[in-house]
Design brief:
There is one protein chain. Helices cover about 50% and strands about 10% of the residues. It is an alpha+beta fold. A five-stranded mixed β-sheet has the order 1-3-2-4-5.
Amino acid sequence: MKLFLLGAALAITFTGAALAKMNFEIKPDDRTLGNPNANVTLIEYAAFTCPHCAAFNEQVFPQLKKNYIDNGKVFYVFRLFARGPQDGLAEKLARCAPREKYFTMTDVIFRSQPKWDYEFGIQDGRAQLVKLGQEMGLKADQINACMDSSADNGRINANGQEAVNRYGLTGTPTFVINGKALESGALPYDELAKKLDQAAR
């Protein structure tokens, strides 16, 4: 899968004990859920235009959250791996809301994918995302300012480039458990739970 960059690609260097020990690091601008001191850290690289990611969000993630994240077993990190420009717009919309509302926004964006994603034949995807944000309580001018800002492009690009360089990521969703990347593709709940249990031992 081609990595879509929202601007000039950024060169990335990796430093720190986390890289040497576990091949992952948590960044201040990551959006996370759960206990940061959990024995297992699960990073999901996903794209808002990815139908498999949307299916995972709806069918698997609620069980994952209930049985592993909410009880402190797993620290969960969500990172965008952009497939196209609409992914960047959707991410900027989600981050336009207060930080504590990020995962509420991403859930709505995934579940509303047929209403705004060009792959469903939608021609005015941005307008539909703005409308979606308004339905979630944001103002249109606020949303458009977030979408027009280039301030977040560097982070989006860097996350995507790191995913390729560090984990060899080629598709979405891809899950990284304690620094070890699994094959790309959505996993059934039972299979993912088994891998999380193994990592906790």
